[in-house]
Structures are given as C-alpha cells and as structure tokens.
Amino acid sequence: MPRLPAAVIGDAHRNSIAWETLESLVDVGNRMAGQDGEEAAAEVVAEAFEGASLQDVTMESFEIPGWWRGATTLSLPDHDQHYGDPHQLFALPGTPAGEVETGIVDVGHGTPEEFDEADVEGALVLASSKTPDDYDRWLHRREKYHEAADRGAAGFLFRNHVEGCLPPTGGVSDADGPGPIPAAGVSRELGHRLVRYCERGEVSGSLDIDCRNEMTTSQNVSARIGPETDQEVLVTAHYDAHDIAEGAEDNGAGSALVAEVGRLLASVEDDLEVGVRCVTFGAEEMGLRGSRHMVGVADLDGIKAVVNLDGIGGSRELGVDVHGFDGLADAFEAASEDLDTPIEVKDDFVTHSDHWPFVRAGVPGLMASC
Ligand SMILES: [Zn+2]
Questions:
Q1: Same-domain status, 100 and 224
Q2: I want to staple 101 with a disulfide (CB 3.0 to 4.6 A). Which of 206, 263, 307, 320 is the partner?
Q3: How far apart are the CA of 270 and the centre of ligand 1, in A?
Q4: Would 249 be classed as within a structural domain?
C-alpha cells in the first residue's frame, strides 16, 4: 500500500490551515442554504482550494426552494399559555407558513406502530426526536413528519429529547418547495409539559408560523488533484449549515478536512494512481440538494467511489459505513491493518448525508465518521 512521506504526515499534524478554514466558515455566521452566508461560505472553501493549489476550482449553481425564518408561536388556550421565545420553540426549516388551531395528539417517539395506535387526522402531532433504544433502526425526523402528514395531520411539533431549553432543528422541505404541513421544534422542557397536558386530557393548541418560502440558488464547490484518469475518487462534505447554529462539527469541519486532504494529496500528486475530486456540497441540510444535483448531471461511470465526511471531529474513533460495497470494506480493512489504526467498518445504511444519492445510483459510497 502506498504511504505518504513522513514530511507530509508531519505537515498534517503540525499545520493549522484546516483549523483556520473551519474558523473562517463558522465566522461567516448563518450558512443556511440559498442565503447570502452560504454563498460567502462557498467562497471560503474556494479560497481554501485555491490556496492549496488544487486544479479546476469550480463553483456550480443550482436552484433550491429557499426558506427564511420569521416568528413562530404556540398558544394553549385551555391553559392560557403562550410560547414564542427561541428557547421554547422555532419553526423547522422548509416548513410552510400558516396557522393551525386544533387538538394536540402525542405519538410518543413517532414510530410507525405508535402512529397506527393514534388518530392524528386533523391534529397537531407531537413526536419526540428520539428513536427508542430497542427499535431496530434509527427513525429520521423527516420520516415522522411525513408519517404525520400522510395520515392527515394538520401540523407537527418535534420535541427535543435532549435537555437544555433548546428546540431541535432540521429541514422538512419537499423536492420543489415547502413541506406539506406547518412544523416546529419544541424544547425538551416545553415538550414534556405538552406530554403531561395530553396525558391529563384533550389539549388544543394554536401554532402560528411566519416564514418566507421562495426559490433561490445554492452551489457546489469542487476542485481536482492528480492524474486525468477515466474514473475519479470523490472526497466530499457539505459546507451549508442551519441558521441557528455554528455548524462547526456539522459540517464546517468536514469541509475544512476536504480542503486539507486536497492540500496534502496535492503534495504527492505525481504519485497518485487515480484522479481525486474534492467536492463540497451546498444545501445538504435542506434535503441533500447539492449531491442530488451532481448525481443528476455527472457522468456516474466516471466516479470510482465517494468518500463522504459529515459530522466529523466529534470522536477519536474512526468508522466507515460502506453500504454493502465489498470493495470499500476491503480497502478500509486493509488500510486499518496496514497502518495499525483501528477503523470500524460497518455495513449500516446511512441515508441522511451526501453519499446517499450516489449510493442509490449504484456508485460505491461511504460515510466516514470520527
Ligand atoms: Zn451534516
């Protein structure tokens, strides 16, 4: 197995370039897809690619349904209570605006079985962000939201299972516009209060969401290194984030690392056997828009594999989810052995990041985590 020269490994350990890229991304502020900050972040990544002397630095735009946050309130007329502070609740990105006044129905964790037992027609559905520990797979927010909408619910309240007066966030938009029903995240503390009220009897709630939904543009930023080969390996991450968060771990760190991997590989460019394309996607948080765009326009036969970095840097344990592609599993198991470095190779299906549109199209793709 080819190895990087000691000088390159030493450089990787000692330089602060990736950290500075991460700081520049975070300091942009709001990097919400399709908004000014996302475009500014794309420029940060492009500058990092150029600073690393990568070739063909390219910015490619595509249309997305944009979303701009306004005020969100929840009133409980039976209890004469009114919530509208950001530590209590806020709208989920991609929700439509609107006012819903109806009964609140608690569906617990929002598993399909719990939905089967509840009557959510016309209701304001309350579901936890947690998946039960004994459930056989992780249930994503979108799945609970669409289950509610498909069963005729009028609105959706996503209650955080993590304490600390923080509502959860996460996109709910559809392919070409806002999601079907108004949706807000509520803090664990307010969520538990709603659960208690529901246990005591019928509770009506009035959810009022103000926001702007209109088409806008996002962009992917890419660059390449190494020989012109028929197939390239893609090293990818998304650089967009949520408007109410720093987006450091998810996923400024992944974008900074893509640029750093590119910089280090560029120093051994002549030794590479295959071309490598560094890609940072826009609008991942709004429904994997950037990666879906690339899958729609790229020559997929020319992609040997996709190595996707998302939510990276939170742990010292390196793992890869290989989605049933034996060639990827073999490569990482061999690297783990050869480099005497533990890498957990898992065959789970991870559907919520940018490798997924490629995997669905048959391109070997993995999600790396650490
Ligand atoms: Zn992410």
A1: no
A2: 206
A3: 32
A4: yes
CA 93 to ligand 1 centroid distance, Å: 15
82 CA from centroid of ligand 1 (Å) = 33
Cα(262) to centroid(ligand 1), Å: 20
For 71-99, the pLDDT digits (tens) are 999 999 999 999 999 999 999 999 999 99
**Ligand 1 centroid to residue 251 C-alpha, Å:** 5
Q: What angle do CA 138, 248, 12 make, to 5 degrees?
A: 105
Alpha carbon of 311 to ligand 1 centroid (Å): 5
Instruction: Enumerate residue ranges in the chain where pLDDT < 70.
Output: none
**Of 190, 213, 236, the domain-final residue:** 213
pLDDT tens digits for range 283-295: 999 999 999 999 9
Give the chain's domain count.
2
CB contact burial 96-114 (16+ within 10 A = b; e otherwise): bbeebebebbbbbbbbeeb
The pLDDT score that the predictor gives to residue 310 is 95
Q: How far apart are CA 79 and CA 60, in angstroms?
A: 51
